[in-house]
Design goal:
The complex is a heterodimer of chains A (311) and B (97). Chain A has 11 helices and 9 strands. With 311 residues, chain A is an alpha+beta fold. Chain A folds into 3 domains: 92 residues, HU Protein, Chain A; 102 residues, no CATH class; 92 residues, Membrane-bound Lytic Murein Transglycosylase D, Chain A, CATH 3.10.350. In chain A, strands 2-3-6 form a 3-stranded antiparallel β-sheet. A two-stranded antiparallel ribbon of chain A has the order 4-5. With 97 residues, chain B is of the alpha+beta class. Chain B has a single domain, classed as Irregular (HU Protein, Chain A), CATH 4.10.520. Chain B starts with a helix and ends with a helix. Classes of the chains: A alpha+beta (311), B alpha+beta (97). At the A-B interface, strand 1, helix 1, helix 2, strand 2 and strand 3 of A face helix 1, helix 2, strand 1, strand 2 and strand 4 of B. Strand 1 of chain A pairs parallel with strand 1 of chain B.
């Protein structure tokens, strides 16, 4: 390893490979070999040698540069450089020590982080935040060696994956236990402690439940079921948006008029004049020009329909 | 210059017979391969040196499928032209300009 051989060594190697060779002959041959490459480089476009590679001269265009010491700009003149592209066979031989390695597919690294958020013993304290950070660092550390292991032995990848998951679960549980222990030490009174944890546990799930209930509500809305406020024949030149502005106070609510009349309007952009439009009675929980949130929901619907009908 | 032309040129230069030249070219190429495969380098004075370079492992993403791959490290043979040859190559530039 890491020996630097010279021309005489090369001659020796060649003599080793084949019998009945004259040392002087081989020496002159080796010299001829390299002088021919050198000569040919200047006379021809390239020199290709089977099982070794291809030598060629490549032109490097002139470019501007700056003298690092003086800061002066100067031009690097166009020049040639020698490139050597090794033959596939030589590449293969040179890469022998790493031959067994293969490219491996990686799964998403986000998975372990998701598991962390599911952590049931999650408490909203500063200690917990610190612990979370620690957990993350632990993940990073456990991930890397696992990746290396996979690389060296791709066949046992599945077994390793199982092990990795087991490790992650183990680490999460351990961290949770440590957090819990710290929590206990902070609150010395043993009787107060359970009530507090209960409160935290109870209050934690409440918030997401409320969040989950509110957003789907407007989605369920079907203006087709609403009471009719008025039925108007669409006049020439009028559009649903103008009706919405007239009856609901904002153009974006046209989507609800459209939804109420979906049964006989195929494309809201092309409605025949005289078509009877049923204007539903506005539900203040859905249609209120003064509520920016409701306007936003209507706008979302609008963009959805726009995309649908612009095709 | 193709391999055939190269062998012919070497034969003329070294004044050996064709059969022997073919044999020796093969032996020389094999020797370079052997030197490199053992992690050594070969330095031909005035010409340049054949060395090994390690390309580190890297992550690669298939842009169409989004799959991520870990490309293993590999050893690549490189040729570094010697000072003599380098200077000669530089010389041609100034001649042409």
């Amino acid at each position: 390893m890491n020996n630097r051989f010279l021309l005489p060594d090369l001659v020796r190697f060649i003599l080793d490979t084949t019998e009945d060779l004259d040392k002087k002959e081989v020496e002159t041959f080796v010299r001829a070999y390299f002088t021919v490459i050198e000569k040919a480089l200047f006379e021809e476009d390239f020199v290709k040698i089977n099982n070794l590679g291809k030598f060629s001269l490549q032109k490097v265009e002139a470019r501007r540069s700056i003298n690092v010491n003086t800061g002066e700009a100067f031009e690097i003149k166009a020049h040639y450089k020698l490139t050597f592209v090794p033959d596939a066979k030589l590449r293969e031989i040179a890469n022998k020590p790493f031959e067994h390695l293969e490219a491996i597919e990686l799964e998403n690294e986000q998975e372990p982080i998701k598991k962390e958020t599911i952590n049931p013993n999650k408490l909203t304290t500063k200690e917990d935040n610190i612990m979370e950070k620690k957990e993350k660092t632990v993940f990073v550390v456990t991930d890397k060696p696992a990746a290396n292991e996979k690389k060296t032995a791709p066949e046992t990848q599945k077994a390793k994956k199982g092990k990795l998951v087991a490790w992650i679960v183990f680490v999460v549980v351990m961290c949770a236990l440590i957090v819990f222990a710290l929590w206990k030490t902070v609150f010395t009174g043993p009787e107060i402690e359970p009530t507090i944890t209960e409160e935290v546990v109870e209050s934690a799930p409440v918030a997401p439940v409320v969040e989950e209930v509110t957003p789907p509500a407007p989605k369920v809305v079907d203006p087709a079921d609403w009471e009719t406020l008025k039925v108007v024949p669409l006049q020439k030149g009028k559009r649903l948006t103008l009706l919405a502005l007239e009856y609901y106070g904002n153009k974006v609510f046209w989507v609800y008029i459209y939804e109420a009349n979906r049964s006989h309007i195929k494309n809201p952009n092309k409605i025949l004049a005289g078509t009877k439009i049923r204007i539903p009675k506005p539900d203040p929980a859905v249609i209120n020009a003064k509520d920016p949130e409701l306007v936003r929901i209507a706008k979302e619907k609008e963009t959805k329909y726009r995309a649908q009908f612009s095709k | 210059m193709t391999n055939k032309e190269f062998i012919r040129a070497v034969q003329l230069e070294s004044k050996l017979d064709k059969q022997k030249t073919v044999l020796l070219v093969e032996a020389l190429n094999a020797s370079i391969g052997k030197v490199l495969s053992e992690g050594d380098s070969l330095n031909i004075w005035g010409f340049g040196s054949f060395e090994l370079k390690k390309r580190g492992e890297r992550l690669s993403v298939n842009p169409s499928t989004g799959k991520r791959f870990m490309i293993p490290p590999k050893l690549v043979p490189v040729f570094r032209p010697g000072t003599n040859l380098k200077n000669k190559i530089k010389q041609i530039d100034s001649d042409e300009q």
